[in-house]
Amino acid sequence: MTTVAVTGAEGFIGSHLVEHLVAHGHQVRAMVQYNSFSSFGWLETLDRDVLDSVEITLGDVRDPGSVNGLVKGSEAVYHLAALIAIPYSYQAPHSYIETNVTGTLNVLEAVRHLDIPRLVHTSTSETYGTAQTVPITEDHPINTQSPYAASKAGGDRLADSYHASFETPVVTLRPFNTFGPRQSMRAVIPTVIAQIAAGTREITLGDLRPTRDFMFVKDTAAAFHSVGTAPAEDVVGRTFNAGTGGEISVGDLVTLVGKLMEVDLTVREDEQRLRPTNSEVMRLVADASRLRAATGWTPGHSLEQGLEKTIEFFREPSNLARYKTDLYNV
């Protein structure tokens, strides 16, 4: 049984990745951001038979000592820890640099000096900005339209530089818009579903025009695992998109969710949910053919299948109770 390390393990995608890794026979060291409540985030909801193969440690990627202790002796590191909310990056850009750039630097340094065989670094489709050509390949220009996107692009460039300078065995995965159970209400799909599940029929959202390539979280977890275990010559030093190749506008998405949940909806635009005009990314749709060719990965869920599973999650009262559906989650 190989030991792997995961940063950001307590979060939405991180907790699903931990489940996936355990299901595929790995022992997982899971870093949870230190907090005085001893909260393990979404890891606390995992089945006991999963947690039996998980060693949870409180730490912080901004601290080199925390990172060194986490990754030492592991066969692979999956680096997911990040500040991710775009609206909050307008308010606290320094925090994004400290976590997404300096934190990534700490992970790269630890992997380099401790001779870890594989590092999977997490990027984001937001680094592309509004699509200039579609579908978006990995050769699309980088155009960061928010402090969040800029901080993630900074981490990406560091990862590239460490491979070029030190032959650090890093591979970058660039997921498009992941959704599913456990996602926070800072994202559009849980915002819509949770409001409906709480009984609301007038949904408050931002701009309904942007299109996104939405991918179910279990498929994202499988994409991470695919680049973490593929032969080094096929993936190391490369960047891979992970997406479905389909796109839907936010407005059409709301209509689809309403249909699946069998409710009639009205949508009210909330100005505080709108990005600054030049910061809104209007279109994102992935070309993931490079990932398929290198690893054989393909998404296993349609948009409708993923939405059904997400709706089921939010309709469970104990899950819905974790969310503040009447607040705007930055």
From TrEMBL:
Residues annotated as domain NAD(P)-binding: 6-310
Stored Pfam families: GDP_Man_Dehyd
Domain of life, source organism: Bacteria
Region (Disordered): 132-154
InterPro entries: Arna-like_SDR_e, NAD(P)-bd_dom, NAD(P)-bd_dom_sf
Gene3D superfamilies given in the database record: NAD(P)-binding Rossmann-like Domain
Protein name (database record): NAD-dependent 4,6-dehydratase LegB
Organism: Kitasatospora nipponensis
